[in-house]
Amino acid sequence: MIIAPSLLAADHAEFGKGAIRATQAGADWLHLDIMDGHFVPNISFGPQVVKAIRPLVKNIFFDVHLMCSKPEILLEPFAKAGANQMIIHVELGERVEPLIWKLRQLGIKVGLAVNPPTAIAEVEPFLDKIDMLLVMTVNPGFGGQSFIHECLPKIQQADEWRREKKLKYRLEVDGGINNDTVAECARAGADTFVAGTSLFGQRSLKTAIAKMRKIAHANDPALADLKLNLS
Questions:
Q1: Cβ proximity of 186 and 179 under 8 Å
Q2: Among 28, 58, 179, 218, which residue is least crowded by beta carbons within 10 Å?
Q3: Which residues are catalytic?
Q4: pTM check: above 0.85
Q5: In angstroms, rounded to a whole number, what is the distance separating the alpha carbons of residues 220 and 189?
Q6: Does domain 2-230 have CATH number 3.40.50.300?
Q7: What is the pLDDT of residues 180-224, one digit of tens each?
């Protein structure tokens, strides 16, 4: 189970300190939300900020989520800035496959995201070409939103496809993730959890990350099956 705090929930005046805090608290990944004001109704930060943060936290995995109308102009700058993985959106339609291959050429892991209103079937043609599938559990653009429970069947379907097709993509969820919803998502098959305000809003980020990871593990269906087989 991977816990990926979303840097957007940290103090905007001190992103570097937020990244260090998350790393020292035991985060597995750092999730970086990139918003352009067009694809989503908000603006966050660009590759220069990521480049500035990277030397402060040299070893943590940078999970860069491109909520952008023209990600093709951002792939190389973010790769140079230190991204390990970039997530593009299936809603980009016919541009998805060329973007996947461009990321491969850059040596970057590929994530594909699907928004709540979009049918999960839209991602199926790309499942053998990606490293991670992100099921958005809120409509992207702003932090602190409530979890959309109607997205749970999408997670279940994505996990079912992964097992049926014998694929190894990670299954990430993002939006309204807290200690209650992380359990629901883990039971549905998710293994990677992005959380913002529910982590950065706690006095002890280390304790919050450890607790969320423990809850996710406890609700891992694979572990439940193992316990059942051993009993």
A1: no
A2: 58
A3: 33, 174
A4: yes
A5: 7
A6: no
A7: 999 999 999 999 999 999 999 999 999 999 999 999 999 998 765
